[in-house]
């Protein structure tokens, strides 16, 4: 049985939305066991009395979004996140899902669960939407590392391409390097060197990609240094959110005519919003650790958590970590 | 009289839209003279016979968007861009406006017009929109430099803050550093060091800003290394363009109901589009050169070029370059 550790206390809708999502996924995932870490009395109220697919591990502390990551890991030893990470480290669970403090989760992942031997640095990898299909693309690293070296990016590309193939079902994923121009000699020394490494690798490397092309579906995997990736991911999310917010505002506060128009165009507007709904892709995976760690947005609802649970099940079923371990140990 | 060199051959709508814009601006800018560089017969057809505010300098070549910048500057010696840059260098014109190849314009700016003594590197600075007002914000550098050093960023911040104050009329511009987190110790070594330099400077430094906050109007000037700035600018533009395109598509191709809805909501949709209309801010300025160089999007229409001409007039009227020269020579 695959055992998934669930940090039940992270995120805005914890633990209710998390429990709801796991209970829904559980019915489909008969080979999985879900271990909830969190407030015992709250969890007992939400969970069925007896269920062999479910276990509760009571914890008394919670890492908050405003907590400093390293300090939180060190001092909140009985937090849902830290205890869950320790269970994974000790082999009592096979993967970790959290909606909590991103920095703290990265810290727990790296220092408690640990890096795969041969992997220089783990990379954080979400799946993002593209304009013209529901396939999306993976981008790595979006902020696990403030400074990056060429060899990190090569390994991230390799792991992300494997993920795209095995978990998302993309045959021969097209791998591109985020750069400041199309030509091979673009970028700073780091990106020039990575370009050559990717070109000489066995990956299906398609060259450089620029910021404005990201959502156009030109690549299945985009590799970037963690600093740029972080800025780009947040810029895309921020831009989409500002435009959609302004649009809603404009339609709702411009009199009856605009409101009626919005009502008539509802389905069309919804279809745009659904293309940019990233919930269906699951959470961001911290690739390169001894066990899978998945981070979901703190504001995720039960539907998003449900997809993250299914994503983890798939990562475990395909034994991604086992493959990485044998691959990078060479 | 202020003399503005106009590369009349760059951009998708050259030279018609450029001439149209200058003729409109000319009526308001009686102290300016406009020197057009380009195809003589085309320009003669579009321009009035005798006008002391206008001069034509015939050139026979055009630098194309697909041309390699350094090679283009060296080989297309009679191109509108290169000849215009030489006029500025020789003091026969005071500023340069082009809608052509960005890389070539940067190259001509740096190698022909030259850096101000004491400025380590010029930075490219557009004005971007914000969600809640028409003020916008400046971001520097968006790609003139693939590699950046701390001292470059400090100088860019100083020049951009001065621009925001004098040209855009922002009192005590709030200067922020694009980084991967809010706290002072975030980022790689470069950004940590720049944080301290900005903190110790006389600028109104408000701390770090993250990608998702850029369009929220939290800063008047955002300083960033040229690699990240390039990726972020293109990501914002790409995301806005994809969403607006999908929206139009959704409204036009979802039957009569959606079309009618779009018609009714037209004004509301237009108000969103107008907030994201960056034409009113003019073009991107290459700050740190011996004379002002402004780059307009290649797809700009006459309206956008008109604003860029007014922007250059203001930069010259406020003698930005003169101030920078005396400031950085210290």
From TrEMBL, chains A, B:
<comment type="subunit">
    <text>Homodimer. Probably interacts with PlsY.</text>
</comment>
<keyword id="KW-0443">Lipid metabolism</keyword>
<dbReference type="InterPro" id="IPR003664">
    <property type="entry name" value="FA_synthesis"/>
</dbReference>
<comment type="pathway">
    <text>Lipid metabolism; phospholipid metabolism.</text>
</comment>
<comment type="function">
    <text>Catalyzes the reversible formation of acyl-phosphate (acyl-PO(4)) from acyl-[acyl-carrier-protein] (acyl-ACP). This enzyme utilizes acyl-ACP as fatty acyl donor, but not acyl-CoA.</text>
</comment>
<protein>
    <recommendedName>
        <fullName>Phosphate acyltransferase</fullName>
        <ecNumber>2.3.1.274</ecNumber>
    </recommendedName>
</protein>
<keyword id="KW-1208">Phospholipid metabolism</keyword>
<keyword id="KW-0012">Acyltransferase</keyword>
<keyword id="KW-0963">Cytoplasm</keyword>
<keyword id="KW-0594">Phospholipid biosynthesis</keyword>
<dbReference type="GO" id="GO:0016746">
    <property type="term" value="F:acyltransferase activity"/>
</dbReference>
<dbReference type="Pfam" id="PF02504">
    <property type="entry name" value="FA_synthesis"/>
</dbReference>
<keyword id="KW-0444">Lipid biosynthesis</keyword>
<comment type="similarity">
    <text>Belongs to the PlsX family.</text>
</comment>
<dbReference type="InterPro" id="IPR012281">
    <property type="entry name" value="Phospholipid_synth_PlsX-like"/>
</dbReference>
<keyword id="KW-0808">Transferase</keyword>
């Amino acid at each position: 049985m695959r055992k998934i550790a669930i940090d039940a206390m992270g995120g805005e809708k914890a633990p209710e939305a998390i429990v709801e999502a796991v209970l829904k996924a559980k019915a489909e995932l008969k080979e999985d066991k879900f271990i909830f870490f969190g407030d015992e009395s709250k969890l007992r109220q939400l969970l069925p009395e007896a269920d062999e697919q479910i276990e509760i591990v009571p914890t008394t502390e919670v890492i908050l979004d405003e907590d400093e990551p390293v300090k939180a890991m060190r001092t909140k030893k009985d937090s849902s996140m830290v205890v869950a990470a320790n269970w994974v480290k000790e082999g009592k669970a096979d993967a970790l899902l959290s909606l909590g403090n991103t920095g703290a989760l990265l810290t727990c992942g790296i220092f408690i669960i640990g890096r795969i031997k041969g992997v220089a640095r783990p990379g954080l990898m979400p799946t993002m939407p593209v304009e013209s299909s529901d396939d999306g693309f993976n981008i790595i690293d979006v902020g696990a590392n403030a400074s990056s070296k060429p060899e990190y990016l090569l390994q991230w590309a390799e792991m992300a391409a494997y993920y795209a193939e095995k978990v998302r079902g993309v045959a021969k994923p097209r791998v591109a390097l985020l750069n400041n121009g199309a030509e091979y000699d673009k970028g700073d020394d780091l990106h020039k060197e990575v370009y050559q490494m990717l070109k000489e690798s066995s990956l299906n490397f398609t060259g450089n990609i620029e910021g404005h092309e990201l959502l156009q579906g030109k690549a299945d995997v985009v590799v970037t240094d963690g600093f740029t990736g972080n800025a780009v991911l947040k810029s895309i999310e921020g831009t989409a959110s500002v435009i959609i917010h302004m649009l809603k505002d404009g339609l709702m506060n411009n009199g009856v005519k605009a409101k009626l128009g919005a009502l008539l165009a509802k389905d069309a507007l919804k279809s745009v919003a659904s293309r940019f709904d990233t919930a269906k892709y699951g959470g961001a995976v911290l690739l390169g650790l001894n066990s899978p760690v998945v981070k979901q947005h703190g504001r995720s609802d039960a539907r998003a958590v449900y997809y993250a649970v299914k994503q983890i099940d798939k990562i475990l079923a395909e034994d991604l970590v086992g493959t990485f371990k044998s691959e990078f140990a060479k």
